[in-house]
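Posted in: Structural Biology > Protein-Ligand Complexes

Title: Requesting predicted complex, 3-hydroxybutanoyl-coenzyme A in pocket

I'd be grateful if someone could produce the 3D structure tokens for the following input. Sequence and ligand are given below.
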Amino acid sequence: MGRSESEPIAVGVLGGGFMGGGIAEAVARAGHSVLLYEPVADARAASAQRLRKSVGRAVSSGKLAYGQGEALIGRVSYLESAEDLAEAALVIEAIVEDLEVKVDWFRRLDRIVPESTLLASNTSSIPIAGLASAVSCPGRVLGLHFFSPVPVMRLVEVVKALDTSPETLRFAGEFVESLGKQPIATKDRSGFIVNMLLVPYLMAAVRMFEDEFATREDIDKGMALGCGHPMGPLTLCDFIGLDVLYAVCQSLYEEFKQTEYAPPPLLKRMLAAGRLGRKSGRGFYEYAAERGATASPDGAARSRATTGGRGV
Ligand code: 3HC
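-- Reply #1 --
Done. Output follows.
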């Protein structure tokens, strides 16, 4: 591919939501330039605002100098046309967890970018092989699964699909390291390594709550204080987003047909009621609009140890 891994590259990010925006921040922080395409204008503006806010926090906490923060923001361009992704050496897709929508976008990207551009998906569980089948050179397609919040979490799963080339994997591994994160190699099976382990645990907590075995606070305290997890499982569900988790469960269940992956009825009902977790203001807990504020009706979820300290 003729790229020098030590040099900054132009990275396209497709989707400016919580994950896409977080990826853009982490990539720009490492000195690469970011071409972010978010088709919805309002969402694009919200993404730019979230970046400013996050960088502002890093500056005020002394993690970044003011000038470094401004330079980071300056490295992120918000595209109005997807055609401009053609300039990127690597495009990371971070759009909705829906196979058809992703396949459509991979087809479109295949027409936009040159053959030398690598195409990665940040999917949590959708088979990379299905996305690779939508492009003319599947050797350049792989999964790069980031964890939330992306600027903080130090792991990226590097997913090898059936046709991913060794050169693509090598480049991707070095790119992940350039972000100051650790790559781990995983095969293209639903859930990869982390979600295959994490989702049954989270769903067991949802079932425990659904069965009224214990309160949400005690379930969360159990794992936060008893096992040293930064967040209890129900807080973590809210943090990830119940819609995202539901899609991951469905994908895992479809792949393995094991009941531990099946989404519990309560999760489905909460989705139907629009209780998506932190992003919608209500999930297993209640949230105020501002990050950091607590709006639990009984105040019981205010403990930092129980809730991970923010927003619950
Ligand atoms: N964006 C940027 N930075 C953030 C942030 C955000 N959304 N949230 C927290 N931070 C930073 C803070 O600035 C702080 O940085 P500093 O220590 O350098 O000042 C640091 O993270 C710690 O933040 P706080 O002290 O405010 O809060 P906590 O110590 O409670 O940590 C947390 C917050 C990092 C979110 C921690 O609770 C945690 O690690 N939770 C678990 C997260 C987790 O499990 N993520 C994986 C989810 S699974 C997934 O993403 C896969 C998907 O496919 C489902």
